[in-house]
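Case study: DUF4255 domain-containing protein.
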Amino acid sequence: MIYETLQILKEQLEKYLEDSGLGKIVVLDNVAMLESGSDIASDLEGKVIMTLLSVEEENTLKNLPTAKVVNNKTEYRNPPVSLNLFFIVSAYCDSYDNSLISISKTIEFFQGKRVFTSANTIYNRSNASMDVLESFKFNVEIYTPGFEVLNHIWGILGGRQLPSVVYKVQMIQVERDKKLATSEVITQVNGTLNNNTE
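Here is what the predicted structure looks like once written out:
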């Protein structure tokens, strides 16, 4: 679900920037590759690059119920893992002006659309990885790290700081389709109640 979430956001942002006259310039890739000197680095020139920074488990949802009734049988499963994703959008356009405009338009896009659902989002359903995606809902909000944290982020990513903005995606769920056990549903309790107080 991590790839699917970021791919959906990439497609949505790319359409917005294209409609704004900036062209199809959004890529989902590792911005650290700019310093690699490889062919990938040249592919990132003139682009707005979305890069996953971190994955964080949402601990508040660890104690969800693990049993549910399906077709009159109780199914027991491990609870899904709820995740928050942190990603950075970096602009490495042909000029610094265009990089700043791209970041401004990115902020504008996510300000206008914070909640993404299968009902309000158009995405490429012909992508083979999207076949398993039935329904989804996640929120995107801007995340502002301090200067020291930002310095560490760019140090990890290779040292060259670009115009950028960091976002947090709340919450996606990862769940394997695996039952731990199945049992019959308890529909009634038989017996007599003995209320002796002696």
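For the exam, be able to explain this: The longest helix spans residues 2-19.
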